[in-house]
Amino acid sequence: QVQLKESGPGLVQPSQTLSLTCTVSGFSLTSNSVHWVRQPPGKGLEWVGAIWSGGSTDYNSALKSRLSISRDTSKSQVFLKMNSLQTEDTAIYFCTRIPKGYWGQGVMVTVSS
Amino acid sequence: DIQMTQSPPSLSASLGDKVTITCQASQNINKYIAWYQQKPGKAPRLLIRYTSTLESGTPSRFSGSGSGRDYSFSISNVESEDIASYYCLQYVNLPYTFGAGTKLELK
Lengths: 113, 107
Hints:
- The complex is a heterodimer of chains A (about 110) and B (about 110).
- In chain A, a hairpin with a 5-residue loop joins strand 5 and strand 6.
- With about 110 residues, chain A is mainly β.
- Chain A contains no helices and 11 strands.
- In chain A, the strands form 2 sheets. In chain A, strands 2, 4, 5, 6, 9, 10 and 11 form a 7-stranded mixed sheet that branches.
- With about 110 residues, chain B is an all-beta fold.
- Helices cover about 0% and strands about 50% of the residues of chain B.
- Chain B is built from no helices and 11 strands.
- In chain B, strand 7 (about 60-65) and strand 8 (about 70-75) form a beta hairpin.
- Chain B starts with a strand and ends with a strand.
């Protein structure tokens, strides 16, 4: 069955780089896109970006200067890297397939010194 | 970027009521709108895609409609398990954009 699972550090210092991994199973990254969505505590959902089946990427306009999404198809993993982190980047980060209904459980990332 | 204006931000309903949430896009999104339900501490759950296509497992009391810029999502006969937040998402143009959400509470 289709599964996605996020992993990464729970705490990142301000100005540092966030690195998250989404490990997928039950489908191929070369045939399907994977998206990242985040949700600050108590707030709404924000689309972060995506990597498409061909390997191209698209990003949220407000984040694109700090954001990179890549993948390792042999390991069925998608990576998110965001630099120059600020407290406003504190959020739960989800990987998902849009508009399919498959989501990871999310990983909470706190930006704090 | 396409802006999704979702209303109301919150909604109070009694069990058995019908409730409706709307999303207006800043431009035509050609029915490429999805609706999600989210309960506290959980990942969002996709209920409806392409305006009105119910996902497998979505109860028939949920429905969606609309075209062009204007879309709506309804729950007929609200049940206690429907208490949650709801979000619309346009996925026709990049970057994809969510509505701000609607919190459904029991009256």
